[in-house]
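hey so i finally got around to running the thing on that chain from the lab meeting. sorry it took forever, my laptop kept dying and i had to restart like 3 times. anyway pasting the input first so we r on the same page abt which one it is
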Amino acid sequence: MSELPPCPKCQCVYAYEDGPLIICPECAHEWSPSADAASARVFKDANGNVLVDGDTVTVMKDLKVKGTSKTVKVGTRVKNIRLVEGDHDIDCKIDGIGAMQLKTQFVKKA
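ok and heres what got predicted. didnt touch it at all, straight out
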């Protein structure tokens, strides 16, 4: 018998499988074991280095800022990034420009 993970909501260890879902008998929370693997997405920069929250990255390409005439230049260092799910992988604040979202394919770990 395989060990099932505890309930992510209440940490109950008596969870059971029902078809493709795992169900908690105490709080009735249902989740998919494949959803746990998907939430553990690994973010990598353009060189294949793993990125984590709080890293400092360097921009590898001139990036136009949508809606303005400003450009993020090559070599701009971005400190304290936050990794998010979605179209753009990085939330950050760039000096002189403000809050932005970047794609990991245009940055390298500093």
